[in-house]
Amino acid sequence: MTYASWWSDSSRRRTNVRTLADLHLHSKVSDGIQAPGRLVAMAASMDLGGIALTDHDTLDGLPEFMTADGPAWLVRVPGVEISTYYRGRETHILGYFVPEHAKNLKKQLLYLEESRKKRFPKMLRKLNDLGITIAQDDIEPVLRGVKAPGRPHLARVLVMKGIVKDYAEAFDTYLGEGKPAYVQRDMMDTKEAIALLRHESAVPVLAHPLTMGIDNLRGVLTDLREAGLQGVEVKYIYDHVHISSNGEQVQEAARGLQLIETGGSDHHGDDSRCILGEVTVPLEIVDALKQASEDLGGEPAHAWARA
Ligand SMILES: [Zn+2]
Ligand SMILES: [Zn+2]
User: Fold this and answer.
1) 81 alpha carbon to ligand 2 midpoint, in Å?
2) Which residues form the domain of 278?
3) How many angstroms separate the alpha carbon of residue 272 from the centre of ligand 2?
4) At which of 155, 175, 195 does a domain end?
5) Beta bridge partners of 260
6) How far is the CA of 1 from the centre of ligand 2 (A)?
């Protein structure tokens, strides 16, 4: 390959990459590993065109995420992932373009945080009853700076202590729904979360719908759409829950419902999911989400950057 052709090829690739967005990332403020600002730096070094921070049930990482140093071409979407219940099933709702002062949303999330905090010691007690003693010293390094301690943190402790070999085994054996150390927690009703997000002019999107384990996805999407759902996460890798999908099934179920089709890696920074940039959608999806937020009465997202 000549130098000139290599150059044009690599710069074309570069431009291509900058047109892609990963819209599902977690930072250490919920159950990821990296700080929000670190995610910005990582995305910039990968030449991604856009990223969204969607920490579980907290907005606390957003100020750092939106104001951290980074290139102007990298579009940052302030987001959240809310844990909800839909007909008895855990259902995650992503919210995109969360405004800086989302008062009602913050209040609700604070309530959930309290309930999550109570859940963690309950799981520890259950593990203790199973003969697995976890000392405060084991937990502290994992929970340092963490606002919303949850099962992934506990899974990491179990791996670190050598009780299980990996994250998947921790869930399959102890922490998954119906397993001996599982504790159910308080969650918002799915439709309530959708209404709350819309009230804050954040765009509600159904996350990884195949984890719901439902047969009638079309029916669920139709029902949630009537409740105000505006998008569905079509591109997602389900390896960690042993489901193989290329997104077609979800796309098929969503056909004609006029839902914005999003996607992302669900990066946590450990071996539990895909990593940053592995699952992306065209940057136009960010434009569509932004437009939807503005239609809900939202402020332009760049208002964040001036904070
Ligand atoms: Zn999720
Ligand atoms: Zn997630």
Assistant:
1) 6
2) 3-101+187-306
3) 11
4) 175
5) 231
6) 41
Residue 237 class from Cβ within 10 Å (0-12 exposed, 13-18 middle, 19+ buried)? buried
Domain presence at residue 182: no
- Global pTM exceeds 0.70: yes
Dihedral over alpha carbons 192, 196, 201, 204 (to 10 degrees): -40
Residue 230 C-alpha to ligand 1 middle, in angstroms?
A: 17
Domain co-membership, 260 together with 296: yes
Q: Which ligand is nearest to the CA of 279?
A: 2
CA 208 – ligand 2 centroid, Å:
8
Ligand whose nearest atom lies closest to the CA of 53: 2
> How do residues 240-264 score in pLDDT, each as one tens digit?
888 888 889 999 999 999 999 999 9
What pLDDT does residue 241 have? 86
Residue 278 lies in a domain: yes
Examine the domain organization and report whether 121 and 90 are in the same domain: no
- Both 132 and 263 in one domain: the answer is no
71 in helix, strand or coil? coil
The pLDDT mean for the chain works out to 90
Q: What is the CATH number of the domain that holds 200?
A: 3.20.20.140
Dump pLDDT digits (tens) for 212-232.
989 899 999 999 999 999 999
Residue 273: its pLDDT value, please?
A: 87
Dist. CA 291–CA 115, nearest whole Å: 34
Q: How far is the CA of 5 from the centre of ligand 1 (A)?
A: 42
